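Table 4 source record.
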Amino acid sequence: MLVVLEQKGELASKSEDDDPRTDISKPKAVVSGVVHTVSTLIKNENPKEECQTMNLGKEYLKVVQERFNNVKDLGDKTMRQLSNEEIHWSLNEASNSVAIIVKHVSGNMMSRWSDFLTSDGEKSYRNRDGEFEKDTTSKQELIRAWEKGWNTLFETLKALGEKDLLKSVYIRGESHSVLEAIERQMAHYAYHVGQIVYIGKQIKGEDWETLSIPKGKSEEYLQKMLKKNS
C-alpha cells in the first residue's frame, strides 16, 4: 500500500514496506475490505493551499462517519435476524459467539472514544478479558451495550475538527495521530462485524436474508445502479 505525502505542493510516494514502524495490527486505512490511500495533512504557509488541506480534512471526517455507519448497519441487520439463543451460539470452545463479539466491540468503543483527545484509549476501568467470558446476557442488553458504544464513537467524531486530525492521542502509551487512531479503529470494527455477519450466515443457513447483492444478481444490480446514476 502507498501512503501519499503532500507537502507544499510536492508529491512523493512512500511504501509502507520501507517503514520499520509499520504494524499489520494497525492497517492505515482498511474500510470494508477496500484499501484507501490517505493524504498526510501538513500545515502550509500558503493560505490558499492550507484552505484546500482543511477542506480535505473536513471531507475525510464526513466520509469516515459514513463508513462507520455502513459497518454498524451490517451488524444491526445481522443481529435482527438472530434469536436470543442464536446470538450466544459458538462453533466450539475456541470460537466466539456474536454475543461475545458485541461485548468486545462495545467495551473497546467505550474505552477508545471516551475522552478521546485527553486520555489514553486503553482505560484503567476496562476489563478486556471479561469481554470474552461467556454469560447469559440477553439480546436486548447486548443491543443496548452495542448502541452505547457506537453512540460514543459518533459523538466523538462529530466533535472533531479538521485541525484535530494531526493531534496526538495514545493507546496503551503508544502515540498515534488522530487520523491514524480513527483508521486503526475502522479496521478493527470492520473485522469484527465481518465475523458477526459470517456467524449469522452459518446459523441461519437458507433462512439468511442477504445483506449484499444476491448470488446470480450481479448484472441485474449493475444495470439498476447504472440507470439510477445516469
